[in-house]
């Protein structure tokens, strides 16, 4: 049974080895669910400086248990959620454009290995960590296209349903018999709608990005020693703030 984990954040271009492990693990999970290809996902994000990665791994960094990617709007590329849903509802592009003026991103590619399935280690923990690191990147909001299982975590963390798109925020994706729900965390800095327990953890982790804590998994009461390594030394808070003067650069 796993008792120690490390949660680490980095810019994708800084760690190609871990990116390859992420791709392999994510692909294997998709295949186990009968999904051969996700239309909005390619391996090109490995070389994209606008992508940050949060991984859940063993303390020695040899084993990857799961993770999630943070795709920032940089005025050059569409977010995966736009690519995935714009044919079903093109309004998603206008919504993203509006939030992008103050810095926005999307959480995508969330996965966890079968070794930690059902513990929340590969879902809640990296999602919470991603919200922690947004402050270093200077982002004000965050999109996510989540499964029925992960929707609960985003409610805990203060996101709202993005009812402006799809059918009250829902789409059949990545295939016709699977339902995905679009949500947005509108204030990723102050997270006013976040559950008090989660808000306290996020603020505490922001104060000490390399802290080690004892945690319990949310469902199976598993005791864990969690080593956080969430410092992004080359992140800049104004890097992805597009502002009014840069709106024409956004590809929609």
Features:
252 residues; Aminopeptidase; single chain; 6 helices
Quick recap:
With 252 residues, this protein is α+β, with helices and mostly antiparallel strands.
Overview of the molecule:
- There is one protein chain.
- The protein is an alpha+beta fold and about 250 residues long.
- It has a single domain (about 5-250), classed as Aminopeptidase, CATH 3.40.630.
- The chain has six helices and ten strands; from the N terminus they run βαββααβαβαβββαββ.
- Strands 1, 2, 3, 4, 5, 6, 7, 8, 9 and 10 form a ten-stranded mixed beta sheet that branches.
- Residues about 245-250 have low confidence and may be disordered.
What is the strand and helix layout of this fold?
Layout (H helix, E strand, L loop, with lengths): L3 E8 L4 H17 L18 E7 L6 E9 L7 H6 L5 H10 L3 E9 L11 H14 L3 E6 L4 H6 L3 E2 L8 E3 L6 E7 L10 H12 L4 E5 L6 E7 L23
Parallel strand pairs: 1-10, 4-5
Antiparallel strand pairs: 1-2, 2-3, 3-4, 5-8, 6-8, 7-8, 9-10
Helix pairs in contact: 4-6
């Amino acid at each position: 049974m796993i008792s120690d984990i490390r949660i680490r954040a980095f810019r994708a271009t800084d760690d190609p080895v871990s990116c390859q492990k992420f791709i392999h693990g994510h692909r294997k999970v998709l295949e186990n669910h009968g999904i051969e290809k996700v239309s909005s996902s390619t391996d090109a994000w490995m070389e994209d400086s606008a992508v940050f990665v949060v991984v859940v791994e063993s303390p020695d960094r040899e084993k990857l248990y799961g993770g999630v990617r943070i795709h920032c709007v940089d005025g050059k590329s569409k977010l995966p959620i736009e690519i995935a849903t714009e044919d079903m509802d093109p309004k998603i592009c206008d919504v993203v454009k509006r939030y992008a003026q103050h810095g926005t991103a999307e959480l995508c590619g969330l996965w966890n290995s079968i070794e930690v399935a059902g513990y929340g280690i590969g879902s809640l923990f990296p999602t919470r960590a991603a919200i922690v690191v947004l402050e270093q990147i200077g982002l004000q909001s965050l999109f996510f296209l989540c499964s029925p299982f992960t929707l609960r975590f985003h409610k805990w963390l203060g996101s709202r349903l993005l009812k402006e798109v799809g059918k009250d925020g829902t789409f059949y994706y990545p295939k016709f018999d699977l339902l995905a729900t679009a949500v947005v965390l509108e204030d990723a800095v102050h997270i006013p709608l976040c559950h008090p327990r989660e808000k306290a953890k996020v603020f505490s982790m922001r104060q000490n990005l390399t802290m080690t804590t004892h945690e319990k998994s949310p469902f199976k009461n598993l005791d864990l020693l969690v080593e956080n390594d969430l410092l992004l030394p080359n992140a800049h808070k104004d890097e992805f703030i597009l502002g009014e003067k840069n709106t024409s650069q956004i590809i929609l």
